[in-house]
Amino acid sequence: MIELLATRYAYLLMFVLLGIGLYMTIASQNLVKKLIGVNLFQTAIFLFFVAVAYVEVDGEPGGSPVVPATENPASSDLILASPLPHVIVLTAIVVGIALTAVGLALIVRIYSEYGTLREDTLREVRADE
C-alpha cells in the first residue's frame, strides 16, 4: 500500500484536491469561495488527465511524440507518450480561465446590486422582491 502511494502520489493529490473543491462548492455560502472550489475541482481534473497520460515501461518514462527524422518509430522500441491528454488539458485551462472571469464578473455585479455575497442572504432578498 505504501509503495503504491509512493509511486502514484499524483492520484492521491488529485483526490485530495477533488474533495476539497467539492466540499468548498457545496458547503460554503460565500460565492467567491464557491468559485475557488470550482477552480480547485478543475485543477484536480487537469491533474488526473496529466497523470493518466504519463507512460512508463520497465522504469523508463515515455518519450516525446516528436521523433527526429533520423529515427523510424515503427522499427524501434520507442515508448511514446500520447499528446492528446495534454492538448485537452490546455484547452480546458483556457475554458477554466474564461469561466473564472465570467464568474468573477457576475459576483462583482451581484455584490453591487445586493451588497452581499452570501447565498442564503441572496435567497432571502430575492424572495422578498
UniProtKB/TrEMBL annotation:
<keyword id="KW-0472">Membrane</keyword>
<feature type="transmembrane region" description="Helical">
    <location>
        <begin position="6"/>
        <end position="24"/>
    </location>
</feature>
<dbReference type="Pfam" id="PF00420">
    <property type="entry name" value="Oxidored_q2"/>
</dbReference>
<keyword id="KW-1133">Transmembrane helix</keyword>
<dbReference type="InterPro" id="IPR050601">
    <property type="entry name" value="CPA3_antiporter_subunitC"/>
</dbReference>
<dbReference type="GO" id="GO:0016020">
    <property type="term" value="C:membrane"/>
</dbReference>
<keyword id="KW-0812">Transmembrane</keyword>
<feature type="transmembrane region" description="Helical">
    <location>
        <begin position="87"/>
        <end position="108"/>
    </location>
</feature>
<protein>
    <submittedName>
        <fullName>Cation:proton antiporter subunit C</fullName>
    </submittedName>
</protein>
<dbReference type="InterPro" id="IPR039428">
    <property type="entry name" value="NUOK/Mnh_C1-like"/>
</dbReference>
<feature type="transmembrane region" description="Helical">
    <location>
        <begin position="36"/>
        <end position="55"/>
    </location>
</feature>
